[in-house]
Amino acid sequence: MNQISHRDSFRQPVFGADMRRQFDACYPEQAQLFDHDLRSHELLTLEALAQLGEAMPQASVEYNPGDLPVGIRPEDVPDNGMAIGDTIRMIDQSASWAVLKNIEQVPEYEALLLSLLAEIRPILEAKTGQMLKPQGFVFVSSPGAVTPYHFDPEHNILLQLRGEKWMTTFPAGNARFAADEIHEGYHTGGHRNLVWQDDFAAEGTRHHLTPGKAIFVPVMAPHFVQNGPEPSISLSITWRSDWSFEEADARAFNGWLRKRGLTPKAPGRFPARSRTKALAWRVLRKISGQRQ
To answer: Residue 260, class by beta-carbon neighbours within 10 Å (0-12 exposed, 13-18 middle, 19+ buried)?
Structure first.
């Protein structure tokens, strides 16, 4: 692949002044649609992404058939019978969904990721503190592909680059859409996919993503994605914060308490903090590690 330096990744900002104002108003708790100016990039063509997928460790690649129900269980997701490179190169006819995880493992893609995050870093750090653990993910989807109902532990902006899709989001931290026990299980090694109920659909917010549109998705906000009639490429730029790590550790500690017959109170959403429970979990984890 062509080498690209951090300095030369972009000549013009990808996130304009209007986007940055909107991001400042919604971050960190409200899903929001924005405009962006990343319409094409040599590292984000199908061939470049196929080569990236073939070069990445197996643990950094996930792909499966795209014609899945919104609420499929993790253990029921089948294999698509193809290699990752072929899945991406033939995405228009492979009826698949693929994600390349932690693209920052490759220097060229790390430069791309950091260039984008640099544009919004002052805004996010003013609210949630130091930007931690920047990560990038690329999603390549066949026409009509579905990303099942799930949540993610990162602050996330998804940029649509090719094709169109509809993302339906639900309020983060609302136990109706993801029970406390599911949060606790996820943060102690469970799957990100969630239990879907058909009556949820009417309560979600549906966002239409086309090339030049991006969406901010809050930490642990349940969502699912339906791809449009053409192949889709999306770039997800994510980061963590002290607040998000505290929330995760407090959830894990609550799971530990629940297994011992207690009914712990769920952590509050931002700006509430969960320092005491987070510290308790970190101590327990350290003690457990020392015993192994």
So the answer is: exposed
Instruction: Kindly state the DSSP code that residue 118 receives in the 8-state scheme.
Output: H
Give CA–CA dist 195/179, Å, rounded.
9
Q: Beta 61-65 vs 96-101: how paired, if at all?
A: antiparallel
User: CB neighbours of 282 closer than 8 A, spacing ≥ 6?
Assistant: 249
Strand order in the sheet with 213-217: 32-35, 213-217, 155-162, 232-240, 132-141, 96-101, 61-65
Peptide bond into 267 cis (omega under 30): no
pTM here is 0.90
List, in sequence order, every beta strand (DSSP E) within the chain: 32-35, 61-65, 96-101, 132-141, 146-150, 155-162, 165-169, 205-209, 213-217, 223-227, 232-240
SS3 call for 138: strand
> pLDDT for 228-256, tens place per residue?
999 999 999 999 999 999 999 999 999 99
Question: What's the first-to-final CA gap in the chain, in angstroms?
Answer: 43
Dist. CA 178–CA 36, nearest whole Å:
30
CB neighbour list of residue 58: distance below 8 Å, 6 or more residues apart: none
pLDDT, one tens digit per residue, over 181-220 is 999 999 999 989 999 999 999 999 999 999 999 999 999 9
Neighbours of 143 (CB within 10 A): 16
Name residue, tokens 């990039």.
41
Alpha-carbon gap, residue 77 to 68, rounded angstroms: 8
User: Three-state SS across 68-107?
Assistant: CCCCCCHHHCCCCCCCHHHHHHCCCCCCEEEEEECHHHCH
